[in-house]
Design a protein that fits this description.
The protein has 148 residues and is an all-alpha fold. Helix 1 runs antiparallel to helix 2. It comes from Steroidobacter agaridevorans. This is Transcription elongation factor.
Length: 148
C-alpha cells in the first residue's frame, strides 16, 4: 500500500499537467526507499521499478501498459488489469492471505542491492541504449524506404 504522501505528490504532478510517467516516478521512488530501508528486496532494479509502476497504476495514475513486443504477454496483461483497477473500470480484488504471505516472504529473501546507485545507474544506461538503438533503427528503415 503506497503512503498517502506519495499518492498526494503523484496527484499533484498530474494536476500540474505532467506526464503519467512522471507521476509514476513517485511510486518507484517510494519502492526504492522501501528496499533501502530493508522492508523487502528485489531480484533486480527492473523488478523494483515494475513493482512501483504497478502500484502507480492501481492508485489511479493513467500510465498505459507497455507495447506489444517490449515485454511479455503476462506483464502486459497485468499492467492492463492494474490500470483498469486504478481507473475504476474493474473492481479491486484482494489477494488471498496465503499468496500475500508467500509474496512478502519471497521479496524479503531477495537482495537489497537492486536499489543501489550502481544497479539503478546500470538499468538507466541499458534503457537509454535500448531507446537509442530503436530510434536509429527506425531512421535507417525510413531512409531505405525513401531511397527506393
Amino acid at each position: 500500500m503506497p503512503s498517502k504522501t506519495t499518492v498526494k505528490r503523484a496527484k499533484a504532478d498530474l494536476r500540474a499537467g505532467k506526464k503519467p510517467s512522471t507521476a509514476a516516478g513517485e511510486f518507484v521512488r517510494e519502492e526504492m526507499e522501501h528496499i533501502r530501508e530493508g522492508k523487502h528486496g528485489a531480484r533486480s532494479a527492473k523488478q523494483a521499478i515494475a513493482i512501483g509502476l504497478s502500484k502507480a497504476r492501481r492508485s489511479g495514475v493513467p500510465l498505459q501498459a507497455p507495447e506489444e513486443g517490449s515485454t511479455s504477454r503476462r506483464t502486459r496483461q497485468s499492467a492492463k488489469r492494474d490500470l483498469a483497477t486504478g481507473q475504476g473500470r474493474r473492481k479491486p480484488r484482494s489477494t488471498s492471505a496465503r499468496r500475500r504471505r508467500s509474496t512478502a516472504k519471497a521479496l524479503r529473501n531477495e537482495p537489497r542491492s537492486a536499489a543501489s546507485h550502481r544497479a539503478l545507474s546500470r538499468q538507466a544506461k541499458q534503457a537509454a541504449r535500448r531507446r537509442r538503438r530503436a530510434t536509429t533503427a527506425k531512421k535507417r528503415s525510413t531512409r531505405k524506404r525513401a531511397s527506393r
